[in-house]
Amino acid sequence: LLWLKQISAxxxxxxxxxxxxxxxxxxxxxxxxxxxEPGSKIRQDARMASMQPAREDWIGPFYIRWDVPxxxxxxxxxxxxxxxxxxxxxxxxxxxxxVDVLRSGRGEILxxxxxxxxxxxxxxxxxxxIQQAAREALMRPDPAGPEWIGPLQLRWTSPPTICxxxxxxxxxxxxxxxxxxxxxAASDQPLSGSRRTMLQLIAAADDLTVESAGGQxxxxxxxxxxxxxxxxxxQEALRRGASDVDKVGxxxxxxxxxxxxxxxxxxxxxxxxxxxxPGDRLAQIDDVHIGQHDxxxxxxxxxxxxxxxxxxxxxxGLPGIEHLLRxxxxxxxxxxxDRRLGRRLEELMAELTGDGGGEDLGATVSRLARExxxxxxxxxxxxxxxxxxxxxxxxxxxxxxxxxxxxxxxxDAIGPFVFSWNPCKVVAVEDFAANxxxxxxxxxxxxxxxxxxxxxxxxxxxxxxxxxQHPGNIGFARGRSMEHRRALTDGARQALLREAPQxxxxxxxxxxxxxxxxxxxxxxxPEAHTLFRKPIDPGSWxxxxxxxxxxxxxxxxxxxxxxxxxxxxxxxxxxxxxxxAGAYLAQxxxxxxxxxxxxxxxxxxxxxxxxxxxxxxxxHYFSRPPSDGDVVHGCGGIxxxxxxxxxxxxxxxxxxxxxxxxxxxxxxxxxxxxALLTTQPDLPENGDVPAVxxxxxxxxxxxxxxxIVDALPQAGKMFHTKPDAGDCIHKVNGQPxxxxxxxxxxxxLRSGRGxxxxxxxxxxxFRAAAGLLLAEPGLGAQADWLGPVKLGWQTSPPWVxxxxxxxxxxxxxxxxxxxxxxxxxxxxxxxxxxQEVLKMLLxxxxxxxxxxxxxxxxxxxxxxxxxVDKPESEWVxxxxxxWSKPPTILDTKPEATMGYQRPVSVGDVVVAVDSVxxxxxxxxxxxxxMRRTAETSGPQRAPPxxxxxxxxxxxDGKLRAGAVLAMEGPPSDPEWVGPFQFxxxxxxxxxxxxxEAQSQFPKPLTPGDVLQSVDERRWEKGDRDExxxxxxxxxxxxxFTPAGSFDLELxxxxxxxxxxxxxxxxxLGPITVQWSDPPTVLWVAESAQRHFKRRVxxxxxxxxxxxxxxxxxxRKQILELLAKFDGQMQIAPExxxxx
Length: 1139
What we know:
By secondary structure, this protein is α+β, with helices and mostly antiparallel strands.
C-alpha cells in the first residue's frame, strides 16, 4: 500500500486527467494478466472509476451517464447478449445486486458495482413521466372511462385500478405491474377521494405503492418513504428536547461528534449495500459534512433530509485505497501482492519523464520500492496496455507541436488530435485518445488548458509552445462552453465600464446578476448551463471565484474577478433563494393571478396571498406537505395581511427567511380567539388556580406560558406535529409567551400572526393534569392520574401507585410502586397536602424527584469548614472530594450513594447543591451550601432532608480523578489514568484508551499517539510527575499528535541536537540544515513536503520558526526554538534576499 501511494505522488503534478490515465493503465495491465469474465471487468472498472470524478463512465459493457437515476447511454451489444441481459441504450439503472439505486448517486452505485453479484435491473421509462402525465391530466376534464397516465391506464376507483400497462417496465418489489393491480399509495399517503385529489398526490410523489390482485405490495422508489421517516423522526426528536440517544426514523443515534449510529433498519441499510456496521458514524447529510455540529444542528439537517447520507467506520476513517482493500478489491490486492510486474513495469514508468533531467520516475520507483521493502527484481510482463499508448501519444504530440511552430496553418494535426485555431477546437480525434480522459473528448470540444494555463485568451503560437513543454497535461471543455465562458468574462469587462444599475441587477454575459450580498443569479440564458455540470437554479449564489470567497464581495470586486476567472462556483441554497429570485423578477413584470414566484404559484387573494401549487421537486423542503388553498401568511416576521402585491414582493426580496405558509384550518384559532375576546374578555378570578377553557380546537390551561390540556383531531392539521397534552405555547407573534396574560395571547391569536408550540415532556403532562384536577376539584380525592403516573395522596409525600411503561423513558431509573415524589423543582413535598402538591406542579420547572430520603450530611460539611488547613481533597460524609471546579469524586462509601438514580462512580463531578450550581464555586462555598440545610430548615413531619448533591458523569472528572489516584499509587508502565493508558515516554504516548474517550476528540485517537499538551501548555520535560500534575488540574483541552508526525520528529531531533557538540550541519528528523545565517536547507524528506505551502528545495533558507526570525541567531538559540516547534516554519527560496 505504501508503494502504491508513493508511486502515485510524483504523477500528481502531471494533472488529474493524466493521473486518471495512469490508473486506468495499471488496471489494463492487471486485466491483460487475468482477463476474467465480464463480471470481473465490471467490478474492476467500477474500482478505477471511483478514484476519479467523471460525468460518464464505461462500467464493463455499459456506458453510464451519472444522472439521477443513472442512464445507460451506450452498450457493447455482443457482451451484453453473452451475459444474458436485455439492456438497451436509454434504459435507466434501477437496481444493482438487488439494491434499489433509482435515487442513488454515482459513488453509491460504483460501490455496489465493485461488489457486483451478477444482478442488474433497469427500467425503460422514468417515474418522472408518470408525475408529468399526472400534472397534464389535472388540466383536463374528468374522463368518462379509464385514462392513460404515462405508461399506466387507470380507472378512477378508490384506490385507482390499473387497466393496462404500455410496457412491462415498472417493477414493484418482487412482482411486475399488471392489469388488475391497485395503485394504493403515493409517498405512503393512501390514494382515495376524487380524481383531482389522487392526481395531485401522484404528481408530487417519489414513491408509488402497487398492490397486486393477490394482496402483495411493492414499492417504487422506496427510498423516498425512508427519507420521510427520517424527516418525521428528526422533527419528533427536536420536539422531545435534549437527549443522549434519539430514535430518528429508521435509525438510533448516539450524540457524539460525529453522531454514532447504534442501529439502522434493514430498509435504510439496504441503500448502503449491506455495508452498515453498528457503531458507524454519520459523516454526511446531503451536501453537508458533519464535523463539530451539535445535536440540534444535525436534527435540523435531518428534518430537511433529501436522500443522501454518508457513513464513516466507527474507528479511524479509512483512506479510499484501504477501504477498497478491506472490501475485497481483488485487483488492488493482486497489484500489491503479485511481484510478477517486475522490471517491465519499472521500465515503462521510467519513460514517463523522458527528458533525462534529474531523477526520473523509474529511479524514483526503484528507490521508493527498496525503502518500502518491495522486490521488483524478478518476473516479466508481456503486455504494456495503456501505458505504452499514452507514452507514444505524448511523444507524438510534442514532436508535432515543434513542427507546427515552423509553419503557419489554419488547422494542425497534433498527435491524435486535429485542432482549428481562434478559438482552439477539436476538429478530429482518434478513438483511443478520446477515451483517455475522464470525459470522452468529442469533435467540437475546446482545448481548455495546457500545463495548468487556460487557453481561451492564448494565441496559436503560445498554445503550441505550451504543448511542447507539457504534451500530456491537457484538458478539454464540452462543446461551446469556452465561448460561453468568454462571453461571461467579456460581459464582466463591459459591466465595469458602466455605472451600477439603479434596478440592482444587470446582464453579465449569459447571467443576470442581482447585486445583493452575496451576488445572486436571478436569470440565466440557455447557453449559460454549459459552463457548469448542472443547470443553474434562479437564486444561486456566487460562492467562490478561482478559490476566493465572494460571499461578502461587492459588484466591482466580483466583476474584476470574473474578467480573468478560471473557475466559478455557484451554490443553490434551496427554496428561500429561488422564491426571493422569483419575487425580484416579478417586480419588473405585469401582475398575473396566479403568478409563479420561483417554485411556488401564488394567487393574490385578500387579506393574504393563497398558495396554488408547488413544483414537486421542492416538496421535501416542507415538514408538512402544502395544499392548494394554504395561506401565505408572511415572511421574516412581517405579515402580508392587507399588503399590496408590490409591498409583498419587496418584503420577500429584503428578507433572508422563507415564507410562512399556514394551513387553511389555522383560521379556526383566529376566529375562536376573536369570539372569546368579544364575549368574555376576562375570566373570573379563582384564587391562585388558573382557568381552563376551549380556544377553538385547543383546550388551554392559562398558566404562564399557557399549557394545552386537550386537543381535538383537527388541531393536527394546524401544526407540523399534532399537539399533545402538556405542550405549551412557546411564542406568539414571534415573542416569548412566558410572561403573557390570557388577553395578550388571545389578541395575538386573533391577529393571525401565528403561535409556536413546544413539547415539555412528562413535566408538561403533570402540569396539564394538575390544572384539570384543580379546575374540577370533585375528581380524584384519594388517587389521581398525572400523565403516565398514578399518585396516591394517603401519605406525604405522595407515593406511586402505578406507572405506565412509557413513563420510565423520562426518568433515569424505572419507577416502582411505593416510590415517593419527594421534590418538585427542588422544593420538598414533605408535609404538603394534595391541593398544595398540585399547585406546585403548575410551575414552569422541569425536575420531578422520585427517591427515598437520604441521611443528613450537614454536620460533616460543618466539620470540614472548621479545619484550619485546606486540603486539595478530603472526605465529606461518605464522599472523597477533589476540590476542582466543579468538585470531583475520588472515592465513595456505599451508604452515601443510596437513593441515587444511577450509580455514583469515581470521576463523577458535583454540579449543584440543593439546585444551586457549583460549577465554579470554591471549597468554602460548596461546604457552606452543604451545611445550610440544617441551619435553615424548620419543623417538619420528617427529619430535615440533607443537602442534595446533583452528580453528573464527566470525562474531565474521570481524567482528574485518575491523575490524582495515579500520583498516590506506585508508578507502573503502562499506567491507566482515567480513560487513557499511557506509556511514560517523554512526552508520554498512548498505549490504550476506553471507547468513551473517543467522543471527546474531533479525530479518532489510536495507540501510539503522543500527548502533546494539556490546556495548551507544552511540556518542560514531559516526565510522569509533570504530566500527572497537569492532568490533576485539567481544565478543558488535551492535544495529541500522531506518532511519527513532522512536528514531533522535529522537536525530538532538536532536543537531541542540543546535547551534541556544535557541527556545520544537523539532521533534524525529516529535515537537514546547514548552520549558515540564516540556516540553509540541505535535504527534506519527501513525506515532509506536504507540511509546507510550496515544495522545499535544496538551498532554500530557513528564515523563521514559531513566528520569530532566525537571522543572526546562534545554532543553540535556533535549536531551542525548534525544540518548542508549534507548527509554524517559514522557508524562503534560495534566490530570495533575506532581510
